[in-house]
Write a structure and sequence with these properties.
1030 residues; 7-stranded mixed sheet; alpha+beta; 6-stranded mixed sheet
């Protein structure tokens, strides 16, 4: 009907009939109903009505029928359709439509409610036009609309007229899109009125349409303000990096902020799906398929020969060099771009009689990786969801301090160290002293620390506090940290129980937002006292002061400022990356002075990302010093009433150079601490420091049998901050120094793995930890891998960022994973030399079989891979260049398919092989394009956990009956990743590399036979993995 000109015909009929002396309403009313229906489908209906003068005619009819309810109702239905077009809505406003409607919209009544509803809906549609909204503000309609809302709200106790109340609120919402509208709303006490009328109705599901709009209005009209910081630029600066201009603080006015007319939805029901942006896909076939030239002189690549001694030296020469490391004194004056030569001298920080290393590998009961293939762990226990007053520590079973099942030694030491004698303040953040006895701490504290260290769990694999302290003294930080975080010094043991994702309470976000708004309109109980700051001095606090005490000046620590808002509520601001004014996400800090069984609310108010897994079951991590000293040292997921939402803070246009002010987001969570006067550490995710890595590598090297395992730990280069970036080589020693055995050793293909280019992605380091420990283990799969490959591993590409608590950048303020196209040795040394090493391997015909860069992902669940494919990219972009004309090696999909079958945490459905323009300078894309490595990947591990596979519904939970479960099965959203699951993923990745080789046509018959025997003996269900590709 529309395509045949039906709209025009009906509109013309309306005009003609309305202009007669006595319109026939028996015809007009059906005509108006028909127009109201057709108008919803005709996109040009408003313009047609304007051209045929139907707008004026309908307004005239409405005015004539103010006392004839049925006639007026039909006119309003037609006007509602006309007003849906902004252009025609503006014209209706000029012609007095709003004044007419306000005559129809009366205070509360139970009469003519159908007409009143239609009139409020027409008015709401008209106010989408900015000109109408301005007219409403100028004529003082805001206060009138607020009074109407109050009247209907107070009288409609049965909630019979929710749609009228919603339409009135929509009118206010559209007006609030204008700055003048917000000002008028605030002047009319709109915040107070909406807050008072709604605060007691938040749990009423029948009022959902009203509450949702109220929330949007309050968030729109909350006065925008700058963050309570002197400057957005990091509190830490590194003078040798590229300079960053710091303008003096700017006093903000309303004009500094963006118009902020966007609709802010309630994230209580938001989908977490992250959609790919097709307009970012690279469609230039030349850029996708061409191989750029070398980015440096070819002769410069020869310096990397020193990092591949396994290809040239015989093993007698390597006996005394394996695991060479530079001492602190030797690296102190080393050039940033120095690459150690094969004869770099060896240094040790401590000798064997000074430390209690032992044989960690033998002390760790290892389970074969084959027993953990994607069938779930049958012995996995699940803790209940944490709520107020519930501590996950209650579910952790411990036999003293892990020394022996009897715990005799542990108990005797504990008997002499009463809890009352613990100086938690001194113990919780020990100094990096050369020895505890010679430290600047009080003698009693040093003696107590020595006694406590005697109780340290010796079975904590690959960790030693004394060695950690020695390594920490070598670590160089911008702020010259002198303290160590207790969790990193003491160590972490994964809890015995896995933790499910937090079940989010419906409506928790709006409750928190209303509490924020109460600060503005009812500030009587607001303290607003700075209790910690890196930028300024704050009042010295008495030890008995009624507030928490914060600290973050330690490795990987990040907390810039803490403000006590109310007695048990604190606003927290995290530091931006060094030499940067952005990338606020990672946090890691100590808090003391708490009361047990008391809920504390923490609000991190300067987050940047628009959404977070904290909205979908993720919890922060907590480490209790008292729990550790009681024999339960470990990070656990903790917190409840967690949500993440946009707040009222904005960055001024003076900072952004005239662009719209950046929005900030709040992460809010409540914590109930397990002990009084404890020292607890809170972190975004399980921390893993640079010093932890260096300690781990040292202990790994000493755990291997050098006659069987080739383990070489050397220095790739020095970072900008003067810290050595480690490079690890792992393989199997040749059976002898015979020519045949050396040749077989040197012909092994390379696998290259990197991690932690983004400092805040600590989960990548836990995956890398699992990879390293598995590769040096006695697991038969690990032995096969060592005998058939040489692994080149750079476990931490951004040591400086990790050390200084950055989330994304290096000390130069740059995202190093956007520097692979043209890295410079003086600004991005680790990327420059990592790329150089890869170029060297390619230049000698030893391109890696697989290159994989381990990362963490903040907005998706599970573990997945990003790869590179020309065909898939062009197909997804619907490019005019036919993908069928291009040839491409499709083996890039094989490894993720293997991992999807093997690893409990991995999912193929989240993998992507698209090449985006914005990722052109990442490691994955550059290694694929420039080095021709078809299997070049980024492996992303969720900060949150799994919502698929064995870790979605734990096997034992599935076997329980409904009566045995504490809550329905559907309420278990999945498993949050612990360090165990992340390390397991690292081992599974290695198993995937073996099966990838078994599926290749180049796989040797000897390897295939050995692997088949091993895999079949371990698990018959793995047979299908051994089927070769056609």
């Amino acid at each position: 009907m529309i395509s045949k000109g039906g709209s025009e015909a009906l509109l013309q009929t309306l005009v003609d009939m309305a202009r007669t002396a006595s319109p026939d309403y028996d015809v007009l009313l059906p005509l108006l109903r028909l127009l109201a229906k057709i108008g919803l489908r005709d996109k040009k209906f408003g313009q047609k009505a304007l051209e045929l003068e139907a707008l004026d005619v309908t307004l005239i009819l409405a005015r004539k029928n103010l006392s004839h309810s049925q006639n007026l109702l039909h006119c309003l239905w037609a006007l509602r359709v006309f007003a849906s077009s902004v252009t025609t809505g503006a014209m209706l406003g000029i012609n007095g439509a709003m004044e007419l409607l306000l005559k129809v919209i009366t205070p509360y009544t139970q009469k003519s409610t159908q007409i009143i509803r239609a009139a409020t809906e027409v008015l709401a549609a008209l106010l989408k036009s900015k000109s109408n909204s301005r007219r409403a503000v100028n004529r003082g309609y805001v206060s009138g609309l607020l009074k109407l809302h109050q009247d209907w709200h107070s009288h409609d106790t049965a909630n019979s007229f929710v749609l009228i109340r919603r339409a009135l609120l929509l009118c206010l919402k559209h007006i609030a899109n204008l700055r003048s509208g917000r000002e008028a709303f605030l002047a009319a006490q709109g915040m107070e009125i909406l807050f008072s009328t709604t605060q007691n109705c938040l749990d009423d599901t029948s009022l959902e349409p009203v509450i949702s709009i109220v929330l949007q209005i309050l968030r729109q009209c909350y006065p925008k303000s700058p963050l309570p910081l002197v400057t957005a630029i990091s509190a830490y600066t590194f003078p040798d990096a590229r300079s960053i201009t710091s303008d003096p603080p700017h006093v903000l006015t309303e004009e500094d902020f963006e118009e902020d007319g966007e609709e802010e939805e309630d994230k209580d029901s938001d989908s977490e799906d992250v959609k790919e942006e097709d307009d970012d896909l690279e469609t230039d076939v030349i850029k996708l398929s061409s191989k750029p030239g070398l980015d440096r002189p070819a002769e410069e690549l020869m310096q990397y020969q020193a990092m591949c001694l396994e290809l040239s030296c015989n093993f007698e020469e390597l006996e005394f060099k394996a695991g060479d490391d530079l001492t602190f004194d030797e690296t102190q004056y080393t050039n940033h771009h120095h690459i150690p030569t094969p004869v770099s001298p060896k240094g040790r920080c401590l000798n064997k009689d000074q430390i209690s290393w032992g044989h960690e590998r033998e002390a760790t009961a290892q389970t074969s990786v084959l027993s953990r293939v994607k069938m779930g762990r049958s012995n996995l226990h699940l803790t209940s969801k944490n709520g107020p007053g519930i501590s996950p520590h209650q579910n952790v079973q411990s036999s003293g301090f892990g020394l022996s099942s009897s715990g005799s030694k542990s108990s005797s030491i504990q008997a002499s160290i009463k809890e009352d004698a613990w100086n938690i303040d001194a113990i919780s953040c020990p100094r990096m002293s050369a020895s505890l006895a010679n430290s600047t701490q009080p003698k009693e504290t040093a003696e107590l620390m020595d006694k406590l260290l005697q109780t340290h769990p010796k079975r904590m694999a690959f960790h030693d506090p004394y060695l950690y302290m020695a390594k920490a003294r070598r670590t160089r930080s911008v702020a010259d940290f002198t303290m160590m975080a207790f969790p990193d010094f003491w160590g972490h043991c994964p809890p015995a129980s896995a933790q499910s994702m937090l079940e989010r309470k419906c409506g928790v976000q709006r409750i928190k937002i209303f509490e924020d708004i109460r600060r503005l309109i009812q500030p009587n109980d607001v303290i607003n006292k700075v209790v910690f700051s890196l930028d300024e001095s704050w009042p010295s606090q008495d030890i008995t002061a009624d507030c928490l005490r914060f600290f973050s000046k330690f490795e990987s620590g990040n907390l810039r400022k803490a403000i006590q808002v109310r007695e048990f509520e604190y606003d927290l601001l995290v530091n931006s990356d060094v030499n940067s004014a952005q990338h606020q996400q990672w946090f890691y800090f100590k808090v003391m002075g708490m009361r047990a069984a008391t809920p504390y609310r923490f609000n991190v108010i300067n987050c940047e990302k628009p959404n977070s897994q904290f909205n979908y079951g993720m919890q922060p991590t907590l480490y209790s010093v008292k729990e550790a000293l009681l024999g339960r040292p470990g990070w656990v997921r903790m917190g409840y009433e967690i949500c993440y939402y946009k707040n009222h803070y904005r960055q001024s246009t003076a900072v952004t150079g005239g662009a719209s002010g950046k929005c900030y987001y709040t992460l809010t969570f409540a914590i109930t601490f397990p002990h009084d006067e404890d020292a607890c550490y809170l972190a975004y995710h399980y921390p893993y420091t640079y010093t932890t890595l260096m300690t781990h590598l040292d202990l790994l090297e000493k755990s291997v049998n050098p006659k069987q395992v080739y383990f070489r730990h050397e220095v790739l280069c020095q970072t900008l901050g003067g810290n050595p970036c480690p490079l690890v080589t792992i393989s199997a020693r040749p059976e002898s120094n015979s020519a045949d055995h050396l040749e077989q050793f040197r012909q092994r293909p390379y696998q290259v793995i990197t991690a932690r280019v983004h400092p805040g992605e600590s989960n990548a380091s836990w995956v890398m930890k699992g990879t390293l420990e598995f590769l040096v283990s006695s697991d038969p799969v690990a032995q096969l891998l060592r005998e058939n490959f040489i692994f080149k591993i750079i476990p931490m590409l951004n040591p400086d960022g990790v050390i200084n608590g950055n989330h994304r950048c290096s000390l130069s303020g740059e995202d190093l994973n956007r520097q692979w196209l043209s890295p410079r040795a003086h600004l991005q040394p680790t990327i420059y030399h990592a790329k150089g090493l890869l170029h060297y391997l390619c230049s000698i015909g030893r391109s890696p079989v697989v290159f994989c860069d381990f990362h963490g992902h903040s907005q998706k669940k599970n573990v997945f891979l990003y790869g590179c494919s020309i065909k898939e990219t062009l197909w997804q972009a619907e490019s005019t260049v036919g993908p069928s004309n291009l040839s491409e090696d499709v083996s890039y999909r094989t490894l993720p398919k293997i991992l999807d079958k093997l690893a409990p945490a991995f999912t193929m459905s989240s993998c992507s092989f698209l090449v985006e323009k914005s990722r052109a300078s990442t490691a994955r894309v550059v290694v694929w394009r420039e080095m021709g490595v078809s299997r070049s990947y980024t492996m992303e591990s969720s900060y949150c956990g799994c919502n698929q596979g064995p870790y979605q519904h734990i096997q034992w939970l599935l076997e329980m009956t409904n009566s045995e479960r504490a809550c329905p099965l559907d309420s278990f959203q999945g498993l949050q990743f612990g360090t165990h699951e992340l390390e397991e993923m690292g081992a599974m990745f290695c198993l995937g590399l073996l099966i990838l080789e078994l599926k290749s046509v180049s796989c040797s018959h000897q390897l295939l036979t050995r692997a088949t025997t091993l895999l079949n003996a371990a698990e018959e269900s793995l047979d299908h993995h051994l089927q070769r590709d056609a």
